[in-house]
Design brief:
The model has no long low-confidence stretch (mean pLDDT 94). Helix content is 41%, strand content 20%. The radius of gyration is 20 Å and the shape is globular. The chain folds into two domains: 2-218, Spore Coat Polysaccharide Biosynthesis Protein SpsA, Chain A (Alpha-Beta Complex), CATH 3.90.550; 228-298, no CATH class. Helix 10 crosses helix 11 (249-266). The longest helix has 21 residues, at 278-298. The chain has helices at 16-26, 46-55, 74-84, 103-113, 115-118, 149-154, 168-171, 187-195, 221-227, 229-240, 249-266, 278-298; strands at residues 2-9, 32-39, 62-68, 89-92, 97-99, 123-132, 146-147, 162-167, 199-210. It starts with a strand and ends with a helix. The chain is built from twelve helices and nine strands. It is an alpha/beta fold and 299 residues long. Strands 1, 2, 3, 4, 5, 6, 7, 8 and 9 form a nine-stranded mixed sheet that branches.
């Protein structure tokens, strides 16, 4: 088994030690680990820090590969790393995240337990829990043994982040799609496209620890909305074209409100035509004016 860990990094040299040390701890489980780092145009000492990691000869099962690109954003960095990955499993790990001490043991055991199911070509990977730095689950435990990312968040009431370990051959079929030269789009847009053909197997074990940074995407969501409005509009447009059977009412409202918001920000025309289903069209009409007013006041 070989796992490719993909890490885009922009001026995050000071954070990489935690991730590196977590990979070193996990290299004892007999799994080949390939850590691919894409330096997204950093002006700090990221290259030197990674070189120091590479000079450490104590990690026979850990291969570190460093790449550099002019600043194009996280999603392009991941797209480029996916192409270079050679493992049979792929997992994204941001520079401010790191793995639990037994993460790769959990991955190996889960893979071996579900190997026959995985070979059926019905699944695109294994989905695990994420903890915060205090050891708390960032969301809820899984309710079902298998699901899709869309069903998980729009039908099953999930709110927190998860860690997905992709089957490499399937992950390489998909890319993060960016609009109008933007640098970011929510990962969920790609996940929902994979959901159309495959499901994932859910494992109620944490394998990753997340520490949000002040300059990160999550802490600066309003800024991300404005700078990447076209990608978000396409994402919510695609949701509005889905079959909403089983989607919770709160999530339906969430999708319609954000569709109105990004329709306002992108000056989209004839947005009602993109909506599938009478109930959704009716909710859109009822929420349109208050939604536009709120959008104008806030943005």
């Amino acid at each position: 088994m070989k796992i490719s860990v993909l890490t885009p990094s922009y001026n995050r040299a000071s954070l990489l030690d935690k991730l590196y040390n977590s990979l070193v701890k996990n290299s004892k489980y007999g799994i080949d680990i390939e850590w691919l780092i894409m330096d997204d145009g950093s002006v700090d000492d990221t290259k030197e820090v990674v070189e120091r990691f590479r000079e450490n000869k104590d990690n026979d099962n850990l291969e570190i590969k460093y790449y550099f690109q002019e600043n194009q954003g996280k999603m392009v960095a991941i797209n480029n790393l996916v192409e270079k990955a050679t493992g049979n499993l792929i997992v994204d790990c941001d520079s401010d995240d790191y793995f639990t001490h037994d993460a790769f043991k959990e991955i190996k055991e889960a893979y071996e337990k579900h190997e026959q199911e995985i070979k059926s070509n019905k699944y695109y990977g294994l989905c695990f829990l994420k903890n915060d730095q205090n050891g708390n689950n960032m969301g809820n435990d899984f309710k079902n043994k298998e699901t899709t990312m869309f069903d998980l968040y729009f039908k099953e009431g999930e709110t927190g982040e998860k860690a997905i370990v992709f089957l490499s051959n399937i992950r390489k079929e998909y890319r993060h799609e960016l609009e109008h030269g933007e640098k970011f789009v929510t990962e969920a847009r790609m996940y929902h496209k994979i959901d159309e053909k495959y499901k994932m197997i859910c494992i109620n074990k944490p394998i990753m620890i997340c520490e949000y940074q002040e300059d990160g995407y999550t802490k600066n969501i309003k800024k991300q909305f404005i700078e990447n409005k076209y990608g978000y509009f396409e994402y919510f447009k695609e949701i509005m074209q889905k079959d909403m059977k089983g989607v919770t009412f709160n999530k339906r409202l969430y999708a319609i409100k954000h569709y109105i918001l990004f329709g306002y920000l992108t000056k989209a025309k004839k947005a009602l035509r993109n909506i599938k289903g009478f109930e959704n069209k009716l909710l859109y009409i009822l929420l349109y004016i208050p939604g536009r007013v709120k959008s104008k006041m806030k943005y």
